[in-house]
Fold this sequence. Notes:
The protein is mainly β. It is 8% helix and 47% strand. It has a 17-stranded parallel β-sheet that branches. β16 and β17 form a beta hairpin. The longest helix is centred in the last third of the chain and has 28 residues, at 803-830. The model is unreliable at 2-26 and 838-855 (pLDDT under 50). It holds the Pfam family Autotransporter.
Amino acid sequence: MVRLRNLSCRMFFLSCIFACHEHQARAAEIPLDIITETDVGSDGTQYMFGRLGIKAGVNGADAKEYLFDTGSDSFNIAVGMGGSAPSWFPTQAGTPVSAPHGYMYGDGTYGYLQSDTTVSSVQFYNGTTGKQVADYATSGGLRVALIQASIDTADRLNGDTPGQIIPGTTPGLDPSQTYYQDLTWQQTLDAGQAPAEGHFYGIMGAGDFIYPGDNGGVPGQLTKTGYIVEANGTAATPGDCGQGCLIMGLNAALRAQFFTQVPWRGVVGKFPLSGANAGYQFDVMFQYALDNGPKTVGMPTLLDSGTPTIYVGSSALLDQALKAGITGSDGAPQDVNPGHTLSITGSTPNAQTVTVTTADGNQGDQSALLTVGSNPYTPDGYTLEGISFFQHNAVMYDLEKAVTGYTPFYVSDSNFSNGLSITNAMGPLGLAGVISGTQGVSVESGGIAYLTNANTYTGATSVAQNAWLGVGGPGSVAQSSTVKVDGTLDIAHSDAGQSIRSLEGAGTVVLGDSTLMLSQASGTFAGSLRDDYTDGVTRPSVVPLPVLTGGKGQTHGGLIIAAGQETLTGNSSYTGKTGISTGATLALTGTLEQTQVENAGHFLNNGTTTGLVASTGFVNGTGNFAGGLSVVRGVVTPGDTSNTLGTMSVARNFTLGAEASYLVRVGSSAASLITVNGKAQLNGGTLVSTVTAQTRAPELGQSYTILTATDGVQGQFGKIESNLTGSTDLYPFLTTGVDYAKNSVAVDVARSDIAFAAAAQTRNEQSVATALDGIAPTTDIARPITSLNFAQARGAFNALSGEIHASARTALIQDAYEIRDVAIDRMRAADCMLGAQNGTAKTAVHGRLKAQDAHCRADEGETLWMQAYGSWSHNGKTSNAAGLSNSTGGFVMGADTSRIENWHVGMLVGYGHSSFSANGRASSGRSDNVTLGGYASTHWNRLALRMGATYTWNMLSTRRTVAFPGMMDRQNSSYNGGTAQAFADLGYRFDLGRVMIEPFGDVAYINQQTKSFHERGGVGGLHGYELDTGVTYATFGSRMATSLHVGKAVLIPGLTLGYRHAFGALTPTARSSFLAGSQDFEVSGVPLVQDAALVKVGVQTHLTKRLRIGISYTGQYGGHYSESGLKGSLSWVF
């Protein structure tokens, strides 16, 4: 409500300094009551107008409702002329009361007759709940006025009963006017009812101004900093106040809520008690426009919550209205017809515009009634904004900084500790309190919120589609677990940028001049980061545009990835810098349209950057660096982090610094590539070429283009490194060189200085590798090995070695035992040695039967015989040679005679087949064996001597597969060999009852010879040389046998136990060379066992006088060696 001392003093404001009083001010949120009043116009139409009320008490007395009026500068309390103070104003002994004076409003024809005094305290209450919300005790006393009477001129009583005449000579009144007491007002008060408008017990002045001699508004007396008045809340507005609120005390978070802050026209005094600044009544300058027409010049304006309508005292605006025909008849003032718009803008840069749609003053809500032109309340050049301004905005009276701010947001200083969900029904919210706790903040579709305090909640922050969240001033959501933006996040009004942990969603982040820092990035953001709301980004009408410093070409908002990894898949257009800290990662698959990237961490660009990228960290990807790339330090490599090859594009210039490295990944047929549509400048950095296990090996002699530049390549690399050389796990036999051309750089693959022999660990590997080192590396047999690592190379050496040719000699020497054993058994059988396989003999002695009674007699004359055999053996692998499995089988037949004095002499012939395999070398072979030999035995009583010699023609064939990366070969060979042996057996027989025991010792010398050969197959074929090997065996043991009668049959079980020791060349070798041409090399096969145990067990039976059968098992066991043999016999004696 406008309050003027008199009409003339409205134009003149005096500056006055008041004494400063000590006080204790406390910030508080005090609810304001929204009161709607109705009245009847001159034409009988009912209309409404709004009021703001506040529930307060003084000196601890009962609370009453007061009109809350920012157009007044005094707290006026209705006490009347009853002679004693009412209960709501308890008397206070010793408190002085001034003489009555007039306190007039509006055009000076109505007001109060009142006296001034002080109160020691004031209490504020929630008008709905009745709960006290604030209590201010003042040692200096709060200045108030006691209303003794409501006074009016006769034409203003409006039907109320006039009372006594108040002389115009009373201070504060116009002497030319006659004033009357409003008796109806007094009677209503005496009845215990609110005398003013049926609601109020007076007026609580809340203006930020003060007249000389006036008390000063209550907020100005109680706070040094300032206060906020608002009536723009909704029924769903959260917080402690509700739809209307008075916030006492300002801080940085509250001040930051006000996007527009209009400076006062000047400080003209100090409030009593607080000493806070006070301004003019019409203290701020605003501009006005009708229907978006020309704006007025700045007009001093009073924001008056106590006035229900709007008065714009502008003759220029009146002329516009008259010309547009949107007012009544000529003259001033005029009410603007309903349905038109009034734009209200603070006279300060970038001020927000408040728009009011005019209403009919005779009906509906009078808060939108607009009167233009000079009038009794606002002469030409002044404007009075009534309650409608507070219904659209929160208004901040900053006494400390001498500015008045306004914002369409409903501002709350309330704290929230259990999360917050902001909906459209709440209206735009300005949250200056602290949000804490473990729950999060969500802004639902249509919701609008602006945070300006350092919030501590740790839950997630989410902004839904068609929602808006601003974080400004000192505000922060830095402790929120993540921020998901599908609507709009605006940090343009932040004091020092914003820090959040991580960013997700697909919405828009508006930066303004602020920098967004991601402190623990872990999300993917598919939306856009930008400086402002251009390019079709939706901005709620209540949200101001960011204020961007500088002119065209200036940079603004920025982004910092401080830790973790953030992925950007959308298109962003902010112009400030993008920083990537050490240890942090930015993965881009979208576009950074204008920003310059400064990378000290990891920048993975699979999208497009249009600004310069300067890196001191690690930069990779397959994207486009459209603004150029400068690698000052660190590493650049095309491709992703999974070691795959890739191509990186640079649309302008590329620079590699002296402290930087270009990491080139080399594959089997291609390499990493940087294509530059400009100039490439190499300032002596390092070229690092690498091949990993995830890519196929490069090949010797290949050349890979790694850099092209349309405007030429200048400079060279200062150092060349490669993990091909020196790492046994990769490709140590290769190295790289560099080939510079005018517009390109290539990497050439060459043979390294590391010999193949360096990979060898065994004798065979060393032998083969040494031979390969003597071959040109470009040959078909050596080239594949150059692309192997050490472990693979050892496999290749063993595959190429032809080890099976040496191991075959072991198999044939071991097979000679079968022939030797058959011959000794035959000689023992001829001498009727119990347990010998004589049952296998088919004998005829000049037509006479050799046996007549199932008892053996020594052979006389000539004998023909035959024996079958078979065995299976395995020689275990060694550190040098693979294990060998062997099987052999065949038969031996012979003839002998005993007619040479005391000797038994015979000849034998045999055929056998041997099959052997070394699976560890993917090799196998076989041999067809034909044997010819002779034998002789004699005895001296119980002492027997048996000896013989044989020669076996071995017809060998081998097959082996040579397989390793880069080669797949199959080799075959056929060649001859021979196995010669001579042996002797000495035994002494004695009997223990029915058991025969013959301790024995035998010795055998075996010589195995193979001829030369040529393998047939691929490039890994060998030429083998003729070789022979000699081995001596000595065996000691005992033979035991007995005979048993089972019915008419005779069973003869036998057992032989022995120990065998080998002498000589136990490890066979093969000397070869590669058919492709190489020096000779020698490899060894699986060795013969040196010490073995011999076990032989069998049984024979004479089923009839003529029919005999027998079976025996022979086992030989040694270290990593075992052999099992089986012999069976069936014979018919003639």
